[in-house]
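worker-3 :: picked Protein NipSnap homolog 2-like
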Amino acid sequence: MELAGLGLSTSNSRNSPDSWFKSLFVRKVDPRKDAHSNLLTKNEESNLYKIQFHNVKPDCLDSYNKLCEEVLPIIHADKYYPCELVGTWNTWYGEQDQAVHLWRYRGGYPALTEVMNKLKQNQEFSAYRKERGKMLLSRRNQLLLEFSFWNEPVPREGPNIYELRSYQLRPGTMIEWGNYWARAIRYRQHNSEAVGGFFSQIGNLYMVHHLWAYKDLQSREDTRNAVWHEDGWEEVVYYTVPLIQHMDSRIMIPTKASPLQ
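worker-3 :: tokens ->
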């Protein structure tokens, strides 16, 4: 039977105007054989990272830093705990009276669980947490994986300042972000400013953190301006900015206990 005036057969519903109209809004999804995290990370390694943000009572920051300097290096140096302190900082510009700690767990989630269980039995660490709690206003953390195309963070001699640039991406855009930055990272290696690049697994999802090191604020300004003279950088910015929902920048000063100085 023909529909009057349309010349379309009712025997083939795929050709109906309604189906054609709906097809404009149907997005074909290609099946994936692996999780995004496996496509973006260094598969031959199993490094898991934890980043901690501690908002400290303003009159307690010096005491908090002193307490951390007494305890955190001991855990870092003790091979009994399969974890390493990558860096520890105070925020200079950004959220004030804030401490940021970055830990690495070689061995992934099993290493994290092992450290947590062992620290529960450590009375000195329990006393540290109790004393630390008196100084905090709030705290939060995230578990992160590192991008395969970034450097692995290694200790640095100072003095340096560090910038932590955090990007909240639109859900579903992490692979696209990784594809662009896999090419873009070479533009940001000239002054050895690239320290590490990470994306969240637990906590705020679709969150990316880029960690940079500079001698000072003027060095940061000069380095960031110079990259605009690189062929291809403008294209990276053009295509990655639409992927971002929100972004934030912290300028941080390493504490005495930080392997990244």
